[in-house]
Design brief:
single chain; mainly beta; Maltoporin, Chain A; 5-stranded mixed beta sheet; 47 strands; globular
Amino acid sequence: MKHIYLLVGLLSTQFFFGQKSKDTIKNISLNEIKINTDRYSETKTFQKIATLSQIDIAFQNTQSTADLLANSGTVTIQKSQQGGGSPVIRGLEANRILLLVDGIRMNNLIFRAGHLQNVITIDGNMLQEVAVLFGPSSTFYGSDAMGGAINLKTKDPLLLNKANRKISGNLFSRYSSTNDEKTNYVDFNIALNKWAFLTAVSTSNFGDLRMGAKKNGNNDFFGERLYYVVTENNVDRIEANSNKLIQKYSGYKQYNLMQKIIFQQNEKMQHGLNFQYATSSDIPRYDRLTDLLGTNGLNSARWDYGPQKRLLAAYKMNSKDLFLNTDLNFGLHYQTVEESRITRKFNSDNTKTQLEKVNVFGASFDLKSHLGLGELLYGAEFFYDNVQSIGSSQNRKTGEIVTADSRYPNGLNNTVRTDIFAIFTNAISPRTSYNIAARTGFVNLKSTIKDNSIFQFPFTAISQSNLTYSGALGLISKGSFSKVSFNLASAFRVPNIDDVAKLFESVPGTLIVPNQDLKPEKSITADLTISLFKNKLIQLDNTFYYTRLYDVIVTDAFTYNNQSTIIYEGVSSVIQANQNQGKAYITGFNTSLKVTIAKPLSIYANFNFTEGKIVNESNNSPLDHIPPVYGKAGIVYDNEIAHVDFYLLYNGSKNINKYLLNGEDNEKYAPAGGMPGWKIFNLKGSFAVLKSLQLSAGIENIMDIQYRTFSSGINASGRNIYFGMNYKF
């Protein structure tokens, strides 16, 4: 209910300010100020950055932001269910990469090392740009950004001098055949001279996902849904699936709302409010619903993620030339996230719910000063996170609710983080520049067990304090037809509540218990990018990188009260815990090519290779999350009327001997011997029918191949035909 009150308040503010602006500033015209405060812009970091513009995002017409990233061919995506998508950058995933929305951290104290679905809480239709930073970005954004960072930039309101009309907007609708998807989106912009308001709303309804029907090369069919659980009158039974290609119980619904307000005080200062809210229906965790019980049964009658709720309320202030040729960007924000897991075993009467409510308070300021030919960006950040973790169990027959074990300690759990940073960029010559950056900070974590009677841990409190630091050094040299950049950077990730205090059944028969003796993970990476180009007709980029990881946190065998197994929910379970396991390395390269054959025709391709291993005294073992080779290649026709893209997405195979067994590679959801490689062809087009009307259509997975991406627990979509319409007013 409090979310509704906040929304009403914001909309009321919109109405009030709109009336006031009309009366008092109707004859004033100001130029909208543009202050580049992105810490990752090309002038500040020489690491590889891939961007998707608003035009790119609209053209891809994907069902989620995770699918948008997968279709870019620059990152891979893991899925445990249709309503998910966990990006992998350079073999690092989940809490080892950083997600940002409008430059604000989404990572919080419960971001896990496994697979995360938070990226889907941001609707692609609301995005203005997506930027993927490859490689360590901790110096720019702090903890977690070891493999890179993804900044999801949402649309901004437009003042009257930019919008050219007081009221404008977009209506968008899409239908997809593979899951009977129905998505509708609307935004409208109210533009005044000093004030602007942008409201955006979207709803999506995704039915059960249909997998491909054709064999993937010479590989056997895999992952077909032969049967599922039906519950009637509190009785569970196994039902044969009438269509084994339909992945029963994979559908869900998604809802998104955004409200932005800007006020341009004068030519040098601008204020902004940013409100975002996302929620969903229950999202079935598909892979767990397919876990077998014996040879002819299913383990779970229900395994849902409860509605994933995300609320953001943020204020920002930009001031140009505040003092001594210095610009200021100041921000305050509050986020609340609610996640839950709702599970019931087959033929059990008890439904277990584990609920987490996270609150995040943050403040930051960036100062940018021009020093001769150089630029100095410096600032500070403060974050306070807390989580309330609740466990309960309800009997479906009697309705009785009793306390159950929670995922995290059921007392007070919080993290305080403060950082300062500085980034200096300067030119050595007209063609050569360098940058140097540093960050240091302090993180304090506290966790307490309020009620220790459920599991009886040998402790009731966990406390950690860590001093953090990182640095980066970059060099770039530009020639007439080439560019060479070198970047050396360190990164870190401080253990969070999920690392040190989690109680979790990772798979049936394996229980992860808390371990408070964890140290931060650290890394150092060197990467080299060589770019060749000629008159913008040919562009070839090659990036090579090597990352050394220290104090790597890995889930491994553990003893609890001197025991290696324990009875958990009636099952004898092997005990594991997160532990620092020495060193690891990741190495790889990326190659991308774009050639303009003759306007409006061009071709493009990219290829990615990654390898990673844990290095310890006894032997070397595979590092999890390392994807097989992957990439994208296509041909594009683009003019003022039509944009058509025919492209190939592909993944190589991943042999089982390259899996980290019992880790996050999920070998149990792969065929025997590992995950086969795959390739799919897609055809997409958008057509400007009228100046204000654009139609889009496409066929994805044209050959209807049955396949599954590495470490995923659900088959990818079969042949999908979609239609979309966008009307601008």
